[in-house]
Structure formats: structure tokens, C-alpha cells
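QUALITY CONTROL LOG
STEP: pairwise intake check
CHECKER ROLE: data steward
CRITERIA: each record must contain a sequence immediately followed by its C-alpha cells, with no blank fields

ENTRY 1 OF 2
RESULT FIELD BELOW
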Amino acid sequence: MKLRTALAISALLSAMIALPAMAAPDVYVVNFRNDGEPASKMLDDALSAAIKIAGVEAEEVIVDTTTAAKWERSAHDAFNRNLVPVFNRWVGLPGFAAIVDADTKAVIGCVTPRIAPTEMARALRQMAQTAQGQAVMTRASTSSATECPADYNTPLVE
């Protein structure tokens, strides 16, 4: 019996080692949404397509304030990824997504449903390249497309 258990554990460990490691994201795409906001639904569809088109290592983190339970889940998801400052900055303001450098946790830019999924994908690709430390050529005429909204919440001062 001990031999079988040892063999089973050995086989399990070998299988786990052989599994390919999941690539760490270059960027987090923090989607601020609420079911009552029409822009949220438009962004959900466009963002999903844009992430696929961009072909970058991106992890979507959804901050949903539709219900208290979704709000709490969102807070936990932000905490688990060390994105609490980003969460606190815009929680409650739906209809856009903040693109965050996965290593430094700095906000690189934002996208809204006002731009087409292909333009959003181009912006995501450029922001991911910025997170990787690559130089990126941008057109000045499109810079407003990735500007973030003003802070929605003010930090508590002690």
C-alpha cells in the first residue's frame, strides 16, 4: 500500500513538473464595469475582442460594482494581484479599462468603448510593449484615446 501511494505521488509530481508553466501577464486589464451602465456592456464585448486581436500576455481583472457581492469579489481579485491602489482610484466609475504594468503596478493608460476593437488592440499591444521596456512609436492624434479619467475617489488623508 505504501509503495502504491509513493508511486502515485511520484507520478503526480512528474506530471506537474512536465506541465508548461503559464506565462505571467505583461499587463493587467482592469475592467471597471456595472450592469446598469450601457458603456460597460459595449466595453465588455470590445475588450474581449481587443485582447484576442492584440496577442499580448494580458490578464483581465473585472471590477464589477453591480451588486455588493460582485464588489466584494472584485476587491479580493484586486488585492490578490496587488492592484488595490488602482481599484481604490476608480472603483464606482464604470465604462473603461485601465491598463496596468504587471511588474510595477503603474497605470500605463486606459481604453473606453468609444474606440473600435482593432484600435483598442493596437493600444493594448503598445501598452504591453511599454510594460516590457520596449520603445513604442505613437501617433499624437490617437493619444487622447488612451487617456484615463480623473480619479473618481480621493484617498483618505491621515
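ENTRY 2 OF 2
RESULT FIELD BELOW
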Amino acid sequence: MHRPMEEDAMRNELEAYRGQQVTVHSWSNGVRNRKFKTLELALGYCRHHIADLSSIEVFVHGECTADSIISGIQLEALVERG
């Protein structure tokens, strides 16, 4: 279970990435790389492939900035929040 401060941080992160396109990249042969219109849709895809979560990275594409990468513990927390 996440603490309130962690919940606020995750909510802020989701809000910051709202409306940006996302690519789910997997190093696993069993999970296809896919593009999504929202982070929420990408997280749903990650939930579907929860067994391979350690091999997945989520790239949030910024318009004028470098892509942000969500993986590891950070990705796990967002997926669990579901």
C-alpha cells in the first residue's frame, strides 16, 4: 500500500504526462512494442503483461523535450495503482 505522499507524486506524474503519446517497449519476446495515445492506456497494456513487467519500459514522448522513461519500481507503482 502506498503512502499519501507517494499517491500525490503518482497523481502529479500522471497529470504531467496527460495528452502525450506513449510507447511501451519490451525486452521480452512475449510482449510486443506498442504505441498509445495516453499513459493510462499504456499502463493498462502493462497490467495485461504484468508477468513481464521487469522487461518493460514506457517512453513518454515530449513535444519539445527528451522522452521520459518510466520503468522498474516507478512503473510497478503506477501499474499497481490501477
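INTAKE CHECK: passed for both entries
DESCRIPTIVE NOTE, ENTRY 2: The chain has three helices and four strands.
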